[in-house]
Each structure stands twice: as structure tokens, then as C-alpha cells.
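Exercise 7. Given the encoded structure of a 182-residue chain, write a plausible sequence.
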């Protein structure tokens, strides 16, 4: 049975790892002050100058050009919140083995037509990632423990987004394990 990881938790509280274990995760990565990850929100080129030792580094930006340059830096994951089908960005990420984070919380925060449009964009983005063999990680993106999803729920959401069961499972098991071992 595979080991599952949630690399997109955005908070920390006592007992969080035990709670994640009860959901079915072997390990989580929290992007908070007490967690094992650092999220850098880049808006300009100067934001790409950073140093964090022993932490998982997530670089998020709305600018695809910044994310392309970040692919050549010491970044573990990329977050392109608009999920636009930028082939150049996906190719750069694939060549440099930088996976994209796909937090499902962005879907759960929206309703109606807005959610449907975002699901369509994410689905198309994932198809382009598969075409160019770029890795991606499905994560909960939770800001509290009630928004955390179990591995089975993340796999099911991945399937709704057009992934096969194996692709969705790989995105919360093999790829996160590779990131955490770097």
C-alpha cells in the first residue's frame, strides 16, 4: 500500500500530525512558522533571492515568467494560482523536475459557475502537464484541520479533474516523497 503525503497545509496546531495520520497520511508539510515548508509569494525578480535551509520551498506567483526563472533556482514546488495553460512554463518545470502544487481548497472555496470554470482550467492545465511530463502534487491547501482531505478524497477529486486513479495516487505519494527526500 502506498504512503500518502499532503504537501499543502497552510497552518499548524498541536496534534496536527496525529490528526493527519488518522486521515491516512504518513507525513504532511505545513507552510507555517512551525512547519517544514516556506511559501514565497513572488511578484518581482528580486523575490527570487532567498535562502532557507532544510525547508520545502514553495514559490507561488501569478507571473508565469517569474515561475520559469524560478525553475532554475533551489525551489521544490511551484504554485501558479491562475492555472493558465502556459506551455513554456510547463516545459521549464518538466525539464527542471519542479512539480506544480494543485491545492483543492481553491475549488472548495468557490461556488457555481466560478467553480466550474476553475475546474475546467485546472483540468486543462493538468492535461498539459501530462503531455509534457511535468509533475504535479495534489494537496488539500487547508487553512484549518476541518478543510484537510483524506488521501481517498484527494484521489477522487483528482479523478474528477481528469486524472486516472494511478496519476492521482502518484501525485500524493511518489512525487511528494521525492520532494521530501531532497
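Solution.
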Amino acid at each position: 500500500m502506498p504512503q500518502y503525503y499532503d504537501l499543502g497545509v497552510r497552518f499548524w496546531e498541536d496534534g496536527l500530525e496525529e490528526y493527519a495520520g488518522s486521515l491516512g497520511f504518513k507525513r504532511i508539510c505545513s507552510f507555517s512558522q512551525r512547519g517544514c515548508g516556506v511559501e514565497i509569494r513572488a511578484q518581482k525578480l528580486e523575490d527570487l533571492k532567498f535562502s532557507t535551509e532544510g525547508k520545502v520551498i514553495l514559490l507561488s506567483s501569478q507571473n508565469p515568467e517569474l515561475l520559469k526563472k524560478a525553475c532554475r533556482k533551489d525551489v521544490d514546488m511551484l504554485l501558479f494560482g491562475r492555472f493558465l495553460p502556459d506551455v513554456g512554463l510547463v516545459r521549464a518545470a518538466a525539464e527542471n523536475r519542479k512539480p506544480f502544487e494543485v491545492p483543492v481548497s481553491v475549488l472548495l472555496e468557490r461556488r457555481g459557475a466560478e467553480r466550474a470554470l476553475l475546474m475546467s482550467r485546472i483540468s486543462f492545465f493538468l492535461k498539459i502537464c501530462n503531455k509534457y511530463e511535468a509533475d504535479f502534487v495534489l494537496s488539500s491547501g487547508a487553512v484549518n484541520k476541518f478543510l484537510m482531505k483524506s488521501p481517498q478524497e484527494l484521489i477522487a477529486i483528482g479523478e474528477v479533474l481528469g486524472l486516472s486513479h494511478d496519476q492521482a495516487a502518484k501525485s500524493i505519494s511518489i512525487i511528494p516523497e521525492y520532494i521530501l527526500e531532497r
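Remark. Helices lie at 16-23, 64-70, 87-95, 105-108, 112-131, 151-160, 165-171, 174-181. Students should compare their own answers with the one above.
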